Amino acid sequence: MEQQIFDITIIGAGPAGLAAAIYAKRSNNTIKLIEKGAPGGKLNLYEKLENYPGVTDLTAQDLAYKMYEQVMGLGVEVSYGDVISITKDENIFTIESDEEKILSKTIIVSSGTSEKKMGIPGEDAFIGRGVSYCATCDGAFFKGKDVAVIGHSSKAVEESFFLATHVNRVFIISRGEKLLANPTLMAKLLEYPNIIHVPNTIPFQIIGDAAVTGIKLRGQEEYLMPVSAVFPFIGSVPNTSFISFKETMDAGGYLLVNQNMETSIPGLFGAGDVISKTLRQIVTSTSDGALAAFNANKFIRKLS
Questions:
Q1: For the chain, how many helices (H) and strands (E)?
Q2: Do residues 48 and 55 lie in contact, with contact meaning Cβ atoms separated by under 8 Å?
Q3: Multiple choice CATH, 5-114+236-303, 3.50.50.60, 3.40.50.1970, 3.90.1150.10, 3.30.70.330
Q4: pLDDT digits (tens, 9 = 90+) for 30-78
Q5: Which candidate, 63, 11, 3, places its Cα nearest to that of 273?
Q6: CA nearest 272: which of 9, 10, 75?
Q7: 273 and 16 Cβ atoms separated by less than 8 Å
Q8: Which pTM does this prediction carry?
Q9: What SS3 state is found at 118?
Q10: What pLDDT digit, counting tens, does each position of 131-170 carry?
C-alpha cells in the first residue's frame, strides 16, 4: 500500500505546535503532529500562569492539557518519537524519527529549546542523580536539603521560587554582581528568606558519589559548597540538530523565518521558541503557530 503523504507535519507539541495543529486542521488538511515528550512542551515545567491574556485560574499544565484536548477533538493524528532527520525530494519532505518515517508536503518545526549545559566536570555524570534542568520536575525530591541554582536571569530566579517551597535553602550562584531578573521577580525575591544570592562566583566542578554532594566554586577564592542538587539555568539552545538545511539557521542554531514563518526552504516553516526572535513567551508561540499554519495552508493550495 502506498504510504500516506500528509499535508502538514508539525514537529513539537508545545504551545506553538498545538496552536499550529488547531489552525491547520480547521482548514481540512491532513495533519501529523509528532512529539518526543509530553504534549504542552515547557508548559509542563511551570506551575503558575501570570502573563497569558484571559487566563487567571488555570495552571500551566491545565492549559497544556486543554490545548492538547482541543487538538485531539479535531481528529489530529498524533504520534510520539524523537525526530532524527528531515530531507526533501522535489516537493515532498521525509521526516525520520526513532519510531517511523513520515512523508509530508510541508513541515512546521516547533521543537522548542532545551536548557544549556554548563560543560563542567561532573555535570553529565550526575544528570538524574542531583543535576537537573527542571525544578518543577525534580525539586520535591530534595525536601529539607540545600540546593544550588546556576544563573542570573528571570528563569533562574523563578525556578528558585518553586525550589524554595520544598528545600531548606536555595543558593543562586551568578557570575555577575547582580541578578538580571525582571523587577516583579526581584521584588518577589524578598519574600523568600531561604533564597541566598552568591554573586561574582563561577562553578567549575560538581562532585558526589552515588549522588551529588557538592559543587566547587571560584569567587575570591576556591571552595566547596555542600549541596544535594544543582539546577543550571544559564540559557537555552534550540532543538534543531535534526535539520540538515544549515542555511535556514542563525549562528546559534535558531531557525531564521520571515514574517510568514517561512524559512528559505519552500514548505519548511518555523514557530515558537525554536525560531530566531527577541521574545519567547506562550502568547508569542501560539501566535507563531497560527501564522505558520495559515501560511502552510496557502503554500499547499499553490501546490494543487
A1: 6, 16
A2: no
A3: 3.50.50.60
A4: 999 999 999 999 888 776 777 889 888 888 889 999 999 999 999 999 9
A5: 11
A6: 10
A7: yes
A8: 0.87
A9: coil
A10: 999 998 899 999 999 999 999 999 999 999 999 999 999 9
